Amino acid sequence: MWSQQIGHTRSSDTTIIMRGVHRQHSVGMFTSLLQQTCSKSSELTTFNFVYLPCAREDDNVNLGLAFVNFESPAACKAFLAVLKTENAGQFYVRYAGRASLQGRSLNLLHLLKTRGHEGLIGPGAPRVYRNSQRVSLSEIMLNELPRVELQHVPW
């Protein structure tokens, strides 16, 4: 029997972690499922950051985790409500709830510090969006992250 748990979030949360994501999902496949699920919400549910950490040796196999940042706390809550009622089977999600880092900028900064610029390129790189439409990662990073953090990133 497949089961899932929706964890508690704070009223200001915009970033969730999803555990148990199908390991063969690419970030593109996952984003398509995310867009389909968001379209089922009566609220405007838009996201601006999607990251599926991959094994360093194989960008085609994710680690079963996904991080999604929504553009508002209301959008985050609306997505979790749809996820709960839709049973989330298509995501193979066992848990969805509050991520420890909140906001797109903090997540990007954390990735830059832990994975270096190599973690920001290739199929395993995070994707960023504006109104749920993909935009340039370098543009977002240049606009949102402190300049001192970006001085060694080769664009």
UniProtKB/TrEMBL annotation:
This is Cacna2d3 protein. It comes from the Eukaryota.
